[in-house]
Amino acid sequence: MSYSFIRPKPKPKLDSESRMILIFLLVTLLLILGFTAYIFLKMRSMQSEIVSMQKQTESFRSQSRQFRDEIARIELLAQKYDAISTNNTLMKESIQNLFDLVPDQITLTKAMLDRNGLVLYGVTPSKDVYNYLLLAPLKSVFQRNVTTFYPLENGWWRFVSVNEGSIEAGNEVPE
Amino acid sequence: MGKLGRYFWPKTALLFYLYEERIYAAFGYIEDGEFDMQERREFEMSKAAGLHEWFEEIRQTYPKTYICAMLDTANQGAVPGCLKSDLEKYGIEVALVHRLCIENSWTAYTSIVEMKWFEQKFKGIDFDLLYSPFVLLYKKSLPLLDTKPALFLLHQNGVAFLAIFSEGRLWYAQVLIIGSGEDSDMDGDEGEPKEPGGLSFDLEMIDEDVESISDLDLLGEFKEEIEQKPELEDESAFELLEYNLNLFEEMKGALSRFYHDDLYSHDFIERVTIFDMGDLGEDLVRYIEDELFMQASLYSFDPIEVISILAVKDLEAAG
């Protein structure tokens, strides 16, 4: 029950200064909350980024390993290439030398050069021509020389010369 | 939260009333169902800006400050009953008054125009609570009420609010306009009968000139006192005496109306209690006791004290 003719009017709870302070505090609180939220989100983002980067690092490591292996393989291939190239050069030179060794009087019909040695098939007018003009240089190159002669009808000799020994040409580089 | 709110945003009230062209104001906190008064100030009515400044100063610090005042306009009153028909029974135009039902028993009312005028007089101050002097009188009289009807009078300078209460119920109420000696003369000249008569005591002679008091046998005792006290020779003392007589006459007229008007409940009034906001003195008590053969008592009345009690209740009820 009221004793007054009129009813009390609603009052503002805050004066202007308190309102300003409260607004300031609210703004500060909002900023702090916003900053905290930003930091939290950033942290989460960074954590996921770290995980992603770890994966990436792992991937890079794996790639690096692959690249290293590839490099090693390529290096090996290069070495092999070099070796083959060198060997080929040497072989070319050896073959060139070999063909240079063969005198005009002797005709080669077949030549087999492998890592074990050199097998020559050919025709010589005489054994002496072979022995003096071809065997002598072959002996200087190979350790063992075995030559088999087969007489031909026209008086010439078919020969098979198997030469084994330390000739370097044709050695393969293992992969 | 409540304690925190009370600590940071206290509920405060600025209470004031007008008396003799002066504003008496008080400021305090409303805490734990009580008004804790902090400061009292007085302002000249002509310099009401002082009150405005004080109010602004308080409001800046305490935004939850309520303004409470006693409505001291003349066109107000109180009647038994709370219904519209009850007011109409006493010839009150319901459309023109603002009314308030008290304790579901009686109604205090005031002229809407005068209430607006009062609010306009303090333009810039938003009133929260406006109290009728009859409500203040009722609140102050409550501890003194018993089964027998008693007359209670709240005296302000120039005006008195008279009410007859019985067992917490209002039987009769009237606003008494008390004229000065000159006013009484004028009234006498106009020749209007101021009371319907009918009281067992005929004090008509006192209505005439105050100088004639000394000639009346009925006031022999006062005559003796006047002779004994040289200070009464002072003009102000005569004015007070004259004023008391006028108040006495008004009260007598009101009593007469109460006794003779069939609209009101009747019973013999044996006790008069006067609450005085000014300085009436004991003479009036003696008049009443000697002339009306009623038991009379006089108490000083501080409206701030009663307004504070009512304001606390009203603000608690309003939340």
Describe this structure in words.
The complex is a heterodimer of chains A (175) and B (319). With 175 residues, chain A is of the alpha+beta class. Chain A folds into 2 domains: 55 residues; 71 residues, no CATH class. Chain A has 2 helices and 4 strands. With 319 residues, chain B is an alpha/beta fold. Chain B has a domain of 160 residues: Nucleotidyltransferase, domain 5. Chain B is built from 10 helices and 13 strands. Chain B is globular and about 55 Å long. About 13% of the residues of chain B have low confidence. At the A-B interface, loops of A face helix 2, strand 4, strand 6, strand 8 and helix 10 of B.
What Rg of chain A do the Cα atoms give?
48 Å
Low-pLDDT stretches of chain B are: 181-220
Number of helices of chain B: 10
Low-confidence stretches of chain A: 169-175
Helical proportion of chain A, percent range: 55-70%
> What is the makeup of the main sheet of chain A?
4 strands, antiparallel
Over the alpha carbons, how many angstroms does the gyration radius of chain B reach?
Answer: 21 Å
Class based on secondary structure composition and strand pairing of chain A:
alpha+beta
Mean pLDDT of chain B: 80
Main interface by residue count:
A-B, 16 and 36 residues
User: How many discrete structural domains of chain A?
Assistant: 2
Instruction: Summarize the helix and strand pattern of chain A as letters.
Output: HEEHEE
**What's the total count of β strands of chain A?**
4
How many β-strands of chain B, per DSSP? Answer: 13
The CATH H-level superfamily of one domain in chain B is: ATPase, nucleotide binding domain
Number of helices of chain A: 2
- Read across the widest sheet of chain A, the strand sequence of neighbours is 1-2-4-3
End-to-end gap of chain A: 110 Å
Give the strand line-up of the largest sheet of chain B. Answer: 3-2-1-4-8
The class by helix and strand makeup of chain B works out as: alpha/beta
